[in-house]
Design the sequence.
């Protein structure tokens, strides 16, 4: 009789034990899920998106090619466009910046501008379909401090009209970045980036008369007039994406 009572008690206790185990596993899983969610939230907080508005007019591209025995050519645009992400934890920036070819003016002359468009496209595509573009990943800026320039340098790949540099090389970029908190340069948090490329060689991107139909007969006469190497400078104001979008809607 005692054995039957014990057996009955054991049977009655079995489901309760399984329920307790199940509850324990559920509790542990919920804790793990909560920890993962917290980690993801914290990680996401470090990354912030910024945009450079090409219509603002305050972000500029400037390229100077100064031939020792020829002309000093100045190509400019105020239609720089960027979409970047700044990782505060790693102090790095990744993204894409571009300048449409049709927005670049050469020596403020229509004829020189048209010639430059022909050289850049090699007359194999429409100028409106061409742009100068840089795509970069994890460029180390250092920790940004409010209203204090922070120097940086990086190796960045460029393409011009979709053509990469001959041999797949990158351009050495030097510059500085400065953080403007909300209210110090408009309503949105803003990062100003100034970058400089020395000895930018247009020939390595197949920009020039010898790559362009109708110009071959003038290659020799232009050799000393237009320099192959020049200096490219970029000045960009990147605004926090959400705040910038809100400002545009007002």
Sequence:
């Amino acid at each position: 009789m005692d054995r039957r009572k014990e057996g009955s008690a054991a049977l009655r206790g079995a489901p309760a034990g399984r329920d307790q185990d199940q509850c324990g596993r559920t509790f542990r899983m919920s804790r793990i899920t909560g920890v993962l969610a917290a980690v993801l939230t914290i990680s996401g907080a470090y990354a912030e998106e910024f945009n450079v508005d090409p219509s603002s007019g305050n972000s500029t591209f400037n390229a100077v090619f100064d031939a020792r025995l020829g002309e000093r050519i100045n190509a400019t645009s105020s239609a720089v466009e960027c979409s970047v992400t700044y990782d505060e934890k790693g102090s790095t920036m990744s993204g894409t910046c571009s300048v449409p070819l049709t927005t670049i003016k050469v020596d403020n002359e229509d004829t020189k501008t048209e010639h430059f468009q022909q050289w850049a496209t090699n007359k194999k595509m429409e100028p409106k379909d061409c742009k100068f573009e840089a795509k970069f990943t994890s460029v180390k800026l250092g920790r940004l401090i409010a209203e204090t320039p922070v120097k940086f340098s990086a190796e960045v790949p460029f393409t011009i009209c979709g053509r990469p540099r001959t041999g797949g090389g990158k351009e050495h970029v030097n510059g500085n970045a400065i953080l403007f908190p909300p209210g110090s340069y408009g309503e949105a948090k803003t990062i100003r980036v100034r970058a400089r490329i020395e000895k930018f060689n247009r020939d390595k991107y197949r920009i020039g008369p010898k790559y362009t139909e109708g110009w071959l007969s003038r290659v020799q006469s232009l050799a000393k007039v237009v320099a192959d190497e020049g200096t490219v400078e970029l000045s960009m104001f990147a605004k926090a994406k959400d705040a910038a979008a809100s400002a545009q809607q007002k």
